[in-house]
Each structure stands twice: as structure tokens, then as C-alpha cells.
Amino acid sequence: MDTGFSARSVQDYLNLLEEHPNKEKKESQSSKYEDIQNSMNDVLKLPVKITDKQISIKIKNECDLARILELLGIETP
Predict the structure, then answer these.
(1) Shortest CA distance to 57 belongs to which of 73, 67, 46, 66?
(2) Could you give the number of structural domains in the chain?
(3) I need a surface site. Which of 42, 47, 48, 53 has the fewest CB within 10 A?
């Protein structure tokens, strides 16, 4: 039975199929947190990045840190 596909073309196609679900998964994960990330950016007035296991807030100085801690209700000595 000849399907017209070479072993090489079938392997290339399978490799292509394996790559796309990973890209879609990464895109859906980033969009999953996009609204929360934007809200945090607005509240903190600082760049915020959210991934599956981490929230990252870029601060410029100690005043930024103090403001974040105050918003979180954390007292500093």
C-alpha cells in the first residue's frame, strides 16, 4: 500500500505536531494571568510579570519596596 508519503515527510509532520501544542500551552498560560498582571501593574505602578510559579515585581528603589509593603500591610522596622 503506497500512501505517497515518505518516512521523512511523515516524521517531519509528526515533529511539527509535537511543537504546536507546547506553543499553544505557553500562550494560554500567559494569557491566563494577563488580566491579573495588568491589574497589579495598575495598582503598584510598577512592572509585574506572572508565570505559573512566580510573581516578579521590578522595583527601582527602596521607596518602591516600601510602597509595596505598605499596600500588602507589612510593617517595616
Answers:
(1) 46
(2) 1
(3) 53
**Model confidence, pTM:** 0.57
Q: Which domain holds residue 39?
A: 7-72
Over 9-48, what HEC string results?
Answer: HHHHHHHHHHHHHHHHHHHHHHHHCHHHHHHHHHHHCCCE
Asked, for residue 13, whether it belongs to a domain, the answer is yes
Helix, strand, or coil here: 50?
A: strand
The Cα 59–Cα 55 span in angstroms is 13
3 contacts 15 by C-beta, under 8 angstroms = no
Tens-digit pLDDT profile for residues 11-29: 877 777 777 665 555 555 5
